[in-house]
Amino acid sequence: MLKKIHCLAVLAGLALIGSASAQQPMVMRWGDVVAGGHPQVMMIERVAAEVKAKTNGRIDIQGFPNGQMGSSRDMIEAVSNGTQQLVTEGAANFGAWIPSISVTEAPFIWKSPEHLIKALNGPLLEKYNEQLIKARGMRILGAVYYGTRHLTTSNRPIKTVDDAKGLKVRVPENDVFKAMAEAWGAKPTPMNFNELYLALKTGTVDGQENPLPTIKSGKFHEVQKYIVLTGHIMTPRLVVVNEAFWQKVPAADRKIVEDVLKTHMAWADGEIKKQEVALLDEFKAAGVTIIQPDVDSFRKATLAVVPAKFEAKWGKGTFDSIANMQ
């Protein structure tokens, strides 16, 4: 009798241990280089809260903004090898592994944010996903609008592309941006995002280029005198997950994450577009000079060089076919 009771107690204990183990959440660490307060960081927070509620705590998404988990390349590699589960990153930064994807961040390719969002959450997404899963074990869950990129400078007013000659400008660590800056006659200086504020403050670089909400969240307007509305690139950013981890998530929970993400990506896109309108007045009030340059001079200089330089990588006719998508 005592032996039977003991066995039952052991079984009950094992059941409790098993139950506790089963209730351990699946943790998804989601990194981003941009600072807290940016709509796409707020998107992570909103997705995390709703997913946790809708999965009854089975999925625990943890956000790490402001480059806490490393540079853009560090985090992409970490998601690829599975030490990090999620990252939001510019599409061109995946070009090292899928050469053709960098066309989506090409200068002067998109007509509008709506053009970008529609194209990159449709057939193009499927095409790039197939390649990225095969090449690096990563899956694109969706694309968000990061904003329209503009040039800022510390002490030089830029009104035409000729004024950019010799300008030491920070660009992200990818070849498309470097080629674009070179086409302007500038001196591109690749640099991690989280090093940029100090580099601008100390004069290590003369300027940078980013969307207005990023200029705000990164506080670059504090150390830049001019914002030059070149509008040279509309940047798509991709929410990317480690594929092996993703396949371990139960199908029902994957569907919850996908649906919640879709909702809050749309919210973040809307916030970016609203901020792009409102921020110009805020920057003016802070003492920054806003310049409306001869954008066509930048467009002509850029398109004379960049599409041809990357045609072999992007595929013949790819730039034009995307630019003319309906």
Detailed description of the structure:
The chain has 326 residues and is α/β, with parallel strands linked by helices. It is built from 14 helices and 9 strands. It has helices at residues 2-22, 39-54, 72-81, 113-120, 123-136, 175-183, 196-202, 212-217, 243-248, 251-285, 295-303, 306-309, 311-314, 318-323, and strands spanning 26-31, 59-64, 86-90, 138-153, 168-171, 187-190, 207-211, 226-242, 289-291. Strands 1, 2, 3, 4, 5, 6, 7, 8 and 9 form a 9-stranded mixed beta sheet that branches. α6 (175-183) links the parallel β5 and β6 (187-190). α2 (39-54) runs antiparallel to α10 (251-285). The radius of gyration is 23 Å and the shape is globular. The N and C termini lie far apart (78 Å). Mean pLDDT is 92; it is low at 7-21.
